[in-house]
Write a structure and sequence with these properties.
The complex is a heterodimer of chains A (about 325) and B (about 700). Chain A contains three helices and 29 strands. With about 325 residues, chain A is mainly beta. The longest helix of chain A is centred in the middle third of the chain and has 6 residues. Chain B is an alpha+beta fold and about 700 residues long. The N and C termini of chain B lie far apart (about 135 Å). Chain B is extended and about 155 Å long. The chains are: A mainly beta (about 325), B alpha+beta (about 700). The interface between A and B is medium-sized, with 37 and 30 residues.
Chain lengths: ~325, ~700
């Protein structure tokens, strides 16, 4: 196992006052978008960690953030019962979609023409997926989605667009992962490999593989279309996020003891390290320490030469890999 | 109302009239009581005076009250009164004796039996129960029966058959696990908060993934915990209704023992008997709190009551399982397992006895009594069953004593807590000691007349442990954070020398390897699981490490491996166990959800004679070469296995990827269409002319230089 800590000197992005909830790179990887439990999502230069600007307007914790493929628009979902669309360059709020309860997940489709978000099941309102056509000003103004998919049973805790806008992949509180057809709203496909809630879903660069992170202390790899389970990566702590390297056959897992469950005995029991595993062999080969709270979100730079982590401690850490990382090979 | 009154008046009048009539009718004439001629008496005596008839004496009445005592000494008339006295003393306890009869032969000697009549049948039953088999002396063991049973025994039917012996049930080879060619040891694990119990084989050197191999796993195998018998033959599981023993290659049920509410269990070292304790009161004539079972027959051998608060094990076994003993106020009761009665029918009377302990190798027993009225406290070693005092040691200013036998029974260490001042508390009447210091009194059991050495320690002693199979001992002393660990050696025929003091250590437990020489100093629980592996041959620290929040340390029975565990019973997160080599090299980490308890399966004592063991030790080089070669071979197979496994995984994955890449390429047009004709598959394949030159300024540093005002 190599101690990646010695090698990497991270850039610390300190602009949030509270726990980071989600981070994302844009397609080129020059910008990092971060959402946190404070009300202001930020955008940063990934190269040097300088903050480019903030998106001001939410009145509650921001649970999710996404950017479209040409980095013109940004979408955020918040606990203030709204989902907001922003102009990326100016930071201007373009539309506010008011919902009946908190927005847990949101995302742009491949073309960027469609957006979706999912809502929490609270205060008598059901969990629903809403889909809008960004190009239709009527929809965006009235807040009337072009598609509503009601989700019965356990609520959605993580959701992303499937490849080519055909379906939405949702991870549920029960640990189940399923596809929802965007045209019919039908539940197409479902697997339950995890025993506890899904905290994060991410796709490989070519959309063929799906990575899930679960509270049951494991992350798993699936075939995206069939949802066939392929690999399992085991830890001892709830996994909050897991990302696939676009360059190497590596995955990175982040998580840690939940803040409310951290015992009073010692800070060491939390295990807030980012852990690197071999994609195929499922073997752990490196760890990166640094956060002093659980890692909530992880993202690889699209070129695979750096990655970022956002933690409960409010920091985003941008790590550039050292040459030794690229030299490291598993024998086989 | 008025009508009522009138009626009453008239009635009164009528009554007075009739009385006047009666007088006039019978006054002068005797009435005739005899029945008429044709009267038939249809009332039985029973109906008339049944209650009276019941008390009518019967011929057989006293039969139930009478017992026959056989095997009494045959004595002449001159010694008869003495015998009568002795017998009376024994039998008076059970009730009032109405009558006793000693039949005599022609020469006036007793015939060797007697009859005793009690005032009620219950006394007779009690007397039979308690004194049948009573040993009066070496040659006279009473055989006691109810007189009413006499007929039964005399008139045995001709066709009576002796009960058939139970067919022998072949349980298979209960020691099969010892025949493992690689001598891998087994251990039991309880996890998922007690839901699951599994037996693993420690195959850390075999498998490519360095995992133990599962032997058996069962859900809800036990309701509380499990325990191995001392030689590893049986696995005991505890249940609400009693105890089950499992063994053999498939862990079949060997025997079941009913004891409702059983909580604690202990085996005799020979694995023949099992003692169980249940706090659940059961209405029964026989004592039910503590029960001793015969493991092979499943028979209940004896029950005891548990009157006083005591620490388990209440009964302590001698090393060969011949005797077991328990403490009572001022008495030490030693029982033997032939009869399950008190050894020589009486307890040892030892005023003030506080604690005792059997030697692990001989039938010696050590006990201590505190000081009382200017008589010093003393530690005594006696041999059993003769009760001969082998050694007595007087001690002064003793607050407490703790006895530690070395595993081979070569040495006994009595840790004596001594005081400089003692004060009796006026409220509670208890002694309060101050200025406590510690002595280790070291008894050399194997040397002539048992010489005793003394080692003093001024500091608080936290733990003490003998080296098994050796002559060293270690103890932890001091106050946190100034804790030291001292090692001493007891030289044969020589002095007791200090070997080494390790200062400023984080340790609260000592774990010697079962074969000696190696020791693990552990700071468990509140000391966060700090571990230190020491070779005491040259006092080198082999490794200093930790298993964070470890609650348990368990050596395997051969002394090759150590397991440290974080039990869910002690700590709620990171439950699991780690396997170390005896040098402190971490071999394996095993995280298990709500892991509770891990126990190595013990091994029976070696069948090799001590000469044979010596022979092996002499030729160790020869053997170690062979084993090293084996290890090397194994190591290389491990790496080839692992590589082979990885290669296979890689192949499978590549096959999967091949299809996916083709699929991806097929969808290229669709991707371009969705993104307004832009190909975004590569990061930097935008046509050159689409690049906009842009100057981005980064603020690198802010520097403030204060210039002179001039």
């Amino acid at each position: 196992m190599c101690d990646l800590n010695e090698i990497l000197k991270p850039i610390l992005l300190h602009g949030h006052e509270r726990a980071i909830t989600q981070i994302k790179y844009n397609r080129e990887g020059d910008l990092i978008f971060s959402a946190a439990k404070d009300n202001q999502p930020n955008v940063w230069y990934s190269l040097n960690g300088e903050r480019l600007g903030s998106f001001k307007g939410h009145n509650g914790a921001v649970w999710c953030i996404d950017v479209n493929w040409d980095t013109t628009k940004v979408l955020t979902g918040s606990a203030d019962n709204s989902c907001k669309l922003w102009d990326c360059e100016t930071g201007k709020n373009l539309n506010t979609l008011d919902v009946k309860n908190a927005v847990r997940t949101c995302g742009f489709s491949y073309s960027g023409n469609l957006i979706m978000y999912s809502t929490d099941k609270t205060m008598g309102h059901p969990c629903e997926i809403h889909i809008f056509d960004v190009g239709d000003p009527g929809q965006m103004k009235s807040g009337e989605p072009c598609m509503i998919i009601p989700v019965a049973g356990p609520k959605i805790t993580s959701a992303i667009w499937g490849p080519y806008e055909e379906y939405i992949i949702a991870g549920l509180e029960s640990g189940e992962i399923c596809h929802f057809d965007t045209k019919t709203g039908e539940k197409l496909n479902a697997v339950k490999e995890h025993s506890k809630q899904i905290n994060d879903l991410q796709l490989s660069l070519d959309f063929s593989m799906l990575m899930s992170a679960s509270k049951d202390t494991t992350a798993k790899l699936y075939d995206t279309t069939t949802l066939k389970h392929m690999k399992t990566y085991k830890t001892e702590r709830p996994v909050n996020s897991a990302a696939l390297s676009p360059l190497q056959e590596h995955v990175v897992l982040g998580g840690g003891q939940e803040a409310m469950e951290v015992t009073t005995t010692s800070t060491r029991v939390g295990k807030f390290d980012a852990r690197f595993y071999h994609l195929i062999f499922e073997e752990e080969f490196g760890r990166v320490k640094g956060h002093f709270g659980p890692i909530n979100s992880l993202a690889f730079h699209p070129d695979g030469k750096s990655y970022s982590s956002g933690g409960e401690d409010g920091y985003v850490r941008v790590h550039y890999f050292d040459p030794e990382y690229f030299d490291f090979r598993f024998e086989f | 109302m008025a009508a009522d009154k009138g009626e009453r008046e008239s009635r009164r009048q009528k009554r007075s009239e009739s009385s006047v009539d009666g007088q006039s009718k019978y006054g002068d004439e005797e009435p005739d009581f005899s029945d008429p001629e044709d009267f038939i008496d249809d009332v039985t005596d029973d109906e008339l005076l049944g209650d009276l008839l019941k008390t009518k004496p019967k011929d057989t009445d006293s039969i139930d009250n009478v017992i026959i005592v056989d095997n009494i000494p045959v004595v002449g008339p001159e010694r008869l009164p003495k015998l009568q006295n002795v017998v009376k003393k024994i039998y008076e306890k059970f009730g009032k004796i109405v009558n006793e009869f000693y039949p005599t032969a022609d020469d006036d000697k007793t015939k060797g039996y007697l009859f005793i009549e009690y005032s009620n049948p219950q006394s007779a039953v009690d007397a039979v129960k308690s004194t049948n088999g009573y040993k009066l002396d070496k040659s006279h063991t009473f055989a006691v029966n109810l007189f009413s049973d006499y007929d039964k025994f005399e008139n045995v039917k001709d066709d009576w058959e002796p009960p058939q012996p139970k067919p022998y049930k072949d349980l298979g080879n209960l020691r099969y696990w010892l025949q493992d060619p690689d001598c891998f040891d087994n251990y039991s694990v309880i996890y998922e908060g007690g839901e699951k119990t599994a037996i693993f084989q420690n195959t850390v050197h075999l498998s490519s993934v360095r995992e133990p191999s599962l032997v058996e796993e069962r859900a809800r195998w036990t309701e509380t915990y499990v325990r191995w018998s001392p030689q590893g033959t049986y696995l005991a599981t505890l249940h609400q209704k009693g105890i089950a023993l499992w063994g053999g290659p498939n862990f079949d049920q060997i025997m079941r023992f009913s004891h409702p509410g059983v909580q604690l269990i202990d085996f005799s070292p020979c694995e023949r008997f099992m003692i169980t304790f249940s706090p659940v009161p059961v209405k029964s004539e026989e004592p039910q709190s503590i029960v001793i079972f015969d493991i092979r027959t499943g028979q209940r051998k004896r029950g005891f009551n548990c009157e006083a608060q005591a620490t388990w094990p209440i009964f302590k076994w001698s090393h060969d399982g011949k005797f077991f003993a328990r403490l009572a106020p001022d008495t030490l009761s030693v029982y033997e397992t032939n009869t399950f009665r008190l050894l020589d029918n009486k307890s040892l009377k030892i005023d003030g006895i506080r604690d005792f302990s059997w030697s692990p190798s001989d039938n010696y027993l050590a006990y201590w009594v505190p000081e009382e009225n200017d008589i010093p406290a003393r530690v005594t070693i006696i041999s059993m069953p003769g009760r001969n005092e082998m050694c007595v040691r007087n001690l002064f200013n003793v607050a407490d004593c703790r006895m530690h036998w070395q595993k081979n029974g070569d040495f006994l260490c009595v840790k004596v807590d001594r005081y400089s001042k003692a004060k009796k508390s006026e409220d509670t009447g208890q002694w309060k000691y101050s200025g406590i210091y510690y002595n280790f009194e070291l008894f050399r059991i194997r040397e002539k007349q048992i010489p005793v050495d003394k080692v003093e320690c001024k500091e608080n002693v936290l733990a003490f442990a003998w080296e098994p199979n050796g002559n060293k001992f270690a103890f932890i002393h001091g106050e946190n954070p100034r804790i030291s660990v001292s090692f001493y050696i007891v030289r044969p025929q020589g002095k007791v020398d200090s070997l080494k003091v390790f200062e400023r250590r984080t340790a609260n437990h000592l774990f010697w390897s079962p074969t000696g020489q190696f020791i693990v100093l552990a700071g468990l629980r509140n000391m966060n699981g700090v571990l230190e592996f020491i070779d005491t041959a040259d006092m080198t620290v082999m490794n200093q490490t930790e298993h964070f929040m470890a609650t348990d340390v368990e050596w395997d029975p051969t002394g090759r491996y150590v397991i440290t565990g974080v039990s869910w019973w002690g700590h709620k997160v990171d439950n699991g166990y780690w396997l170390w080599s005896f040098q402190g090299r971490l071999l394996q980490k095993q995280q298990l959800d709500r892991f509770c308890q891990l126990l190595w399966r013990p091994r029976p004592p070696s069948l090799l004679a001590s000469e044979e063991i010596k022979e092996i030790k002499k030729n160790l080089k020869k053997y170690s070469q062979r084993f090293e070669a084996q290890d090397r071979l194994r190591q290389s197979t491990v790496s080839t296995e692992l590589l082979e496994k990885r290669r296979q995984l890689m192949l499978d994955f590549e096959r999967y990827r091949q299809n996916k890449e083709d699929e991806f390429n097929d969808m290229k047009d669709r991707r371009i269409a969705l993104r307004d004709g832009v190909d975004t598959d590569e990061l930097d394949n935008l046509p050159d002319d689409e690049y906009d030159e842009e100057v981005v300024e980064f603020l690198l540093k802010v520097e403030e230089i204060i210039l002179d005002e001039e």
